[in-house]
Amino acid sequence: MRLFLFLSLLLVSCNSKEDKDKYNHALYRAVNNKDTAVLDIHMNDKRFYGRYEISRYGYGKDSGDVRGDLKGDTLRGDYHYISFGGSWKRVPLALLKKDNKLYLGKGVIGTYFNLPCFVPGVPIEYNNSEFIFERIEE
C-alpha cells in the first residue's frame, strides 16, 4: 500500500504543471567533423526540457526530446529519440555548462528499473566531448 501511495505521489508531482513562462529559451549548435547537433532547450534554475537533433554525415538523423534536472553547472537527464531507421531509444544525457558553452558528457551506462542511466560512482567525462555546443541566435 505504501509503495502504491509513493508511486501515486511521484506521478502527480512529475506531471504537475510548471509555469513554462519561467523557463529561459536557448538554441545551441555543435559541429564535430561533418556531424552537426542542434539543441533547442528551455531551462530554469532546477529543470530543463527541449528538442535535440544529431545529423550524422552519410548516415542519417536522430531526433527527439531531452529533459532533466539542473544542478549547479550540470544538466543531467535523458534523451528519448527516434534513431535513423525508425526505432525509439532512450539514453542518459549529461551536459556541463562552462564558458557559455555546453559540453556533452560521456560515461558508463547501466540500467536502473529498466531505464538507462549513468553508473553512479563512475565519473562522467567532459574532456574530448563529441559535441561542444555554442549558443546561436534564432
Please give a structural write-up:
With 138 residues, the protein is mainly beta. 10% of the residues lie in helices and 56% in strands. It is built from one helix and ten strands; from the N terminus they run H-E-E-E-E-E-E-E-E-E-E. It has an eight-stranded antiparallel β-barrel. A two-stranded antiparallel sheet has the order 8-9. Strand 2 and strand 3 (47-56) form a beta hairpin. The termini are far apart. Mean pLDDT is 86; it is low at 1-16.
Summarize this entry quickly:
The protein contains one helix and ten strands, in the order αββββββββββ. With 138 residues, it is mainly beta. A hairpin with a 3-residue loop joins β3 and β4.
Offer a few descriptive terms.
mainly beta; two-stranded antiparallel ribbon; 138 residues; 56% strand; eight-stranded antiparallel beta barrel; 10 strands
